[in-house]
Amino acid sequence: MPFITENNAKKISSTIRVEDLPSNYPDLFGKIWKKDIWFFNHMEQAKLLMLKTFYRKPREFLSIYKKSTKHDTYSFIHEAKQSAYHQKSDCSWLHSSFTTYKIPDLIRNKGKLEVISFREWYKLIISKYEVNSAKFIEDMQNIFGIGKPLEHVDAKNMGILEQENISLVDLEKRIDMLLFQASRFFVHQNEQYQRMMKKYCRYTSMSFRSTNLDDNNTGLSDGEVMSFLSDYHVIYKKPLSDDLSLYYKLRFNPTLEFDGLLLEQLNFKSCSVCE
Q: Which of these, 185, 192, 165, 167, lies nearest to 237 by C-alpha position?
């Protein structure tokens, strides 16, 4: 059966919009874990549940998936390529790296047309000069007013076999221990911090995007709350989300094998190298 990468499995499950899910989706697809996890918000729980469903019952996942093309975020030089599935687990493209460059903020802030213009210039200039060479940057400075090298992005495919060597039993114990530690951490906070945690811990990701809070009546400064949320996300929420994702994969589809027709219905194409 065909294979896909772990990155693409996560991407395809994340395309489901929470607002498009039926109101009773937890009853239809189950829970993210055997215990309720209070500090994951509605969207985070839905994303994890969709990943679990994709690994466990991909045809049920297909019933709520809306086929669409890749969305161009206008953030990188190369974007919006259709994902591929592979007939061979040792296909070189399954384990290859994807290299691109970020579109400079100065360009992005001017809108889509400027990004498109920048991409067209890039196609022409790399036929003459190496990326980020002195001549490349000089030309970019003269045309777009940007005198700094482009930021390099190297996204390595995770393939299907690269994963932590851990048993399901041990992984389950680790997840339960992390939940226990998070619970004990909450209990040992004073009343002020407990109120703050109940109000904001479901939204720790905002600590990486903003410095201002709406309706902060916790008695703590915005900076203190943001710093706390950032640490909480790194110590508890991110590791737990990663471990739950790994658990779903190891339990339900450790080799990431799927029916080819189903993958095509999910907008994948057959790999041209190993087909």
A: 185
